[in-house]
Amino acid sequence: METIKEAIKGVASGNTSAGKTGMDKGDNDKIRQLEQYRIRFKEGDTMTTNQGLSIADDKNSLKAGIRGPTLMEDFILREKMQHFDHERIPERVVHARGSGAHGHFQVYKPLTHLTHAAVFQDPAKKTPVFVRFSTVQGARGSADTVRDTRGFAVKFYTEEGNWDLVGNNMPIFFVQDTIKFMDLIHAVKPEQDWEVPQASSAHNTFWDFVTQQTETMHHVMWLMSDRALPRSYAMMQGFGVNTFKMINAEGVARFVKFHWIPLAGTNSLMWDECQKIAGKNPDFNRQDLWEAIETGNYPQYELGIQVVEEADEHKFPFDLLDATKIIPEELVPVQRIGKLTLDRNPDNFFCETEQVAFCTAHLVPGLDFSNDPLLQGRIFSYQDTQITRLGGPNFHEIPINQPVCPFQINNQRQGAHKKMIHCGKTSYDINAIQKGLPREAGPAKGFVSHAERVDGNKIRQRSPSFADHFSQATLFWKSMSAIEQDHIVSAFTFELSKVTMVEIRQRLVNMLQNVDATLMRRVATNLGIDGPTEPALPGYPKDIYAPSPNLSQLSPLITPKNTIKGRKVAVLAADGVDGAAVLAMSAPLLAGGAMPQIVSLRMGQLKSSTDLEGGKALEVNALLLGLPSVCVDAVYIPGGKESVTALLKDGQAQHYVMEAYIHCKPIAASAEGVEVLSRLGLIPKAGGQLPLGVYVADSATADFAAMFISGMMKHRFFERKLIDTIPA
Ligand code: HDE
């Protein structure tokens, strides 16, 4: 008997087959390399110690007498306990909470004119990658759906060595100079005396810092926008943030900015949902990524670049080296140059996702750094932090960090956890004893820094070209749709309401007047503040950019409304449901890459009011409380008198629908299911128009399913009227 649950590959029960098979065909050098380190138990295996000794009894420690004290001699107990005692390593100082996946990258066309990096030459070549997504502020066990910037770090295992593009889901950073990074992070992390709040920017120290370090304004605008609340790691953009360089074989260098554009669109949660999900399912984004890969709905992203000729370095109203600025796409278009596919989950979270070590200094020939003062500090910090986190300088030997090309062909020796055995007598260059080996590769093959001329006095100063802290914040605000602007105002209001020091709220209002008068006025009103207490900076708000449509995540270019891949749909049902309708709706949803889940009042199998073809059964995937409405993207209520009667008697079921409604989600009901919507007041009396994104029909026909699916492609119906007045 096939059940719906089986049809969706049992993701709810943690079946882990699909995502592991895709890449075992030997077409991914990294997966093949990792195979030698994998341990899989097979029938007949018996337990051993770490020294290979067979263990006879793992249930009882060695005692002096059956009720006597445990013996120090019990080395088997000691090994087990001591290993456990030392199982934790320090979490990352930032980006501690993360989720990883394997995949590959393919370039669309050779980029020979821009760079000689091998990863960008051959469209037939699949370069293995490991990607880690993360939040920034929270600890390892914090919730996924907090308001935060997200990390988007990609390790390319290229034939010329590892290249790490360590990016974020926002294209700019809070500060311009590395020396302010440590202050920023201390301010945003939980306050030092009482370690509160966890994973949140809504507190005194963060806003104290940002309202005094005004270069933060642009990033703060992004942080207060829906970009800080991604629905899924598969549905957020990524950016390299810093300006890098591409160098071609002729030695010509160009500035470049990197972008990742998700093919599933850039979609967000609502703040009310985020807060509820943080309690209901703190692993929301992690689970979503895992399930997408397990069900074969592989997350995909296009890599985009913005290229600026060296000669044009100074032609913009901002400095290319200032990481608090974007290059608006209207000034330099984004060229899409390749595709990233994530198609395999890790086998072991600790070994892969936790131990992976990203570093901006992991670069390949054909790429180089710019003099961005933030990037310059990053080049040092990432390598350095791994030494504490991973316990020494040999972290490159950890399997997930090993390149797939020859590496460690050098004279570095020893250090904690050294694994590779370098043979021979010498460990220095130049040696004659070992025929001078290993020899340098020379400029034809080896990495050569671009020969940029640098000349200047030693000086601790910010370049005047970094002085404009507000005009791109204005650009961002202007480029938002009305609903996105509303969300930004609400976010500022929420965050500053959590700031207990009134003078900080006032400073924020003073600061916002340099961005936009309406924004400032709206936030001030919500905070009960009369207005600014000091004048705006001379010349601000500075409106020097045309609106940039792609900054709005509702833009069809970055969020084409043509897919439901990765969306979850709750099918609300109880005994007596019309099973045929459930199957009729589920089939096209599954075909589109969505996951229908039967959500009910109890677990087990449901009785169907209609005969199910092929003896299929309806197995419940989750309870109403187990998969609450905030954790799904859309709701379907099929017919079946008995089922609908049971739902209408249940307060949770009714709350489910109303909550989905206020979160602007598509809702469909067929046959008797429509009664649920009528009772909740969502169906207008005689002849009125249905609310946006609400679909009803007499039966679950293919046309009806198509209508619902096209609603799901829109993600949310923010234009829905009066949702603020509904108590759900
Ligand atoms: Fe990081 N950052 N960062 N950062 N960062 C780290 O390195 C740092 C910055 C980013 O999944 C740390 O291995 C400095 C910008 C990501 O493992 C640390 C500065 C961007 C990750 C560090 C920045 C990022 C990190 C902590 C300012 C977007 C997680 C653990 C000069 C382009 C990578 C670690 C992963 C992690 C330093 C600013 C992205 C301490 C000094 C800008 C995605 O080395």
From TrEMBL:
SMART domains: Catalase
CDD domains: GATase1_catalase (cd03132)
Region annotation (Disordered) ranges: 1-27
Domain named Catalase core: residues: 48-437
EC number: 1.11.1.6
Single GO biological process annotation from the record: response to oxidative stress
Keywords from the named record: Heme, Hydrogen peroxide, Iron, Metal-binding, Oxidoreductase, Peroxidase
GO MF entries: catalase activity; heme binding; metal ion binding
Enzyme superclass (EC): oxidoreductase
Gene Ontology cellular component terms for the protein in this record: cytosol
Cofactor: heme
Active-site residues (renumbered): 95, 168
One Pfam family from the record: Catalase-rel
Catalytic activity: 2 H2O2 = O2 + 2 H2O
Residues where heme binds: 382
Cited PANTHER family: CATALASE (PTHR42821), CATALASE-B (PTHR42821:SF1)
Family: Belongs to the catalase family.
Function of the protein: Catalyzes the degradation of hydrogen peroxide (H(2)O(2)) generated by peroxisomal oxidases to water and oxygen, thereby protecting cells from the toxic effects of hydrogen peroxide. Occurs in almost all aerobically respiring organisms and serves to protect cells from the toxic effects of hydrogen peroxide.
Protein name listed in UniProt: Catalase
